[in-house]
Amino acid sequence: MLDVGRMTFLQQLQHQGSYANLGFALCLRGAHGVSALSLGEVDDLIQAAEKQAGAQGLTLKVQGLETVSQLRAGYPGVDLFWMVPMDLRVKGPVVEAPSNIQLELTGFGMLDSGTSLLLLSEKPLMQTLAALTYRTNAMEQIRDNGGCGVGTSECFLDCRTTKLNPLTTHFTSEGRELEVVLESSDLLVPVHQAKDGTVLCQIGLGLLTNEQTPLPMMVLGDVFLRKVHVIHDMAGPAVTLVPDVTDRAEVVHFVESHEGHAEAASFDEGRGALQIALTLPSLTLLEALLLLGGCLLGYLAFASRV
Asked: Peptidase A1 domain: which residues (predicted)?
């Protein structure tokens, strides 16, 4: 997010250079993958991402953030975040309806590389966790652990054997659809290693506590972003999602336990392996690092339109 009324770094570059439509693409991958940040013309970034992923992307207009006070006053939302319309769906293991959909929530997803998990407000979070574990061995582990406190996301689950129902994020735009499916290997996050060597995971969903908007929304963090290329169009504002099925989450092999805390053993190899592709001759190293820091912390968005 940005301070309202201030010009962004990319917008300054747009004004200083001869760029038709300057944007940036973000590709986050797991501990054994290579993440990349690319700057350039939006059309070129989309074409490159589609070629690399072997799939066609979907462009979505950004939704303005409406606070409760703005809604009551009749004012439109402000473009502060990369927030797009979406549906969240969970299919169950047993065919109880033609679509086999256990849960469907309609709202908006906020793309944020500074968040590790998927974040939802309390009621949708509980509904989603219940649907993910419905009639799975995860439900059995949760029951054996006495319910694991508040919310099943706090439970320790066996990374190797736990199976969850798939979670689907569904997007539509101009008659076209895109589905990004998160399987068990995507949703289970390693957090601890037991004394017997068993690697334990938690479900990668968390509670969105600071809700500023009456819109039903969730934060799409790294758990989702590792499945797509995201091209950010500052002028739109819009984002293009290009699905990439080449990266699978590693849920077992990169966890070490240090004084009761789990850490990624190959953190420096994974997140540190960040490639920066620059097509801007006027960009200095310092400017690139400042831009990079803003992107990865989730603070680079766009200035509000007056």
From this structure: 1-242
